[in-house]
Design brief:
The chain is mainly alpha-helical. The protein folds into 2 domains: 17-77, no CATH class; 79-125. The protein contains 4 helices and no strands.
């Protein structure tokens, strides 16, 4: 066995050189790939491949959708179109409810505006001692006699 020199605190790693070579290789390949991907030619080639893939897979996708629709119908389950139609109907209902709410708010404002002048006339003609005499009475817990306590 070989002995380490007295001042050495780090043991010798035989794979350290391989790791440094690997890291240098990965760094250089990453730079090359980034440069290659950021070109216009790469974007055009990728776009053409994607377009071809979508064109070739379209008939298979349509056949899959038709068969899935048939299976869902046989199982009495809703399809994507059913959910879409239901969502449209709920949206229409929500819009109608919002319109009705706005109309009710307008009607409520009109009725309050019409009732306000009448209540002001009544309050002007009513005497204050009568209002004090009609103070609300408290009813005892459990009793329904209507007498004040």
């Amino acid at each position: 066995m070989s002995e380490d020199p007295v001042g050495s605190s780090k043991p010798m790693d035989p794979f350290e050189q391989f790791r440094s070579m690997r890291d240098a290789y990965l760094d250089s390949m990453a730079k090359v790939m980034v440069d290659a991907v950021n070109t216009e030619g790469y974007a055009q080639a990728t776009g053409a491949m994607l377009e071809n893939t979508l064109t070739v897979s379209a008939p298979f996708r349509e056949a899959m959708e038709k068969s899935m629709l048939q299976v869902l119908q046989q199982l009495s389950m809703p399809s994507r179109q059913d959910f879409s139609a239901l969502a449209d109907r709920f949206t229409n209902l929500e819009i109608r409810l919002d319109d009705m709410d706005a109309k009710l708010d307008r009607i409520e404002k009109q009725t309050h505006a019409a009732a306000r002048p009448e209540s002001e006339k009544e309050s002007a003609t009513a005497s204050k001692p009568i209002l004090k005499a009609q103070a609300p009475r408290r009813v005892g817990a459990g009793r329904q006699t209507g007498t004040a306590e």
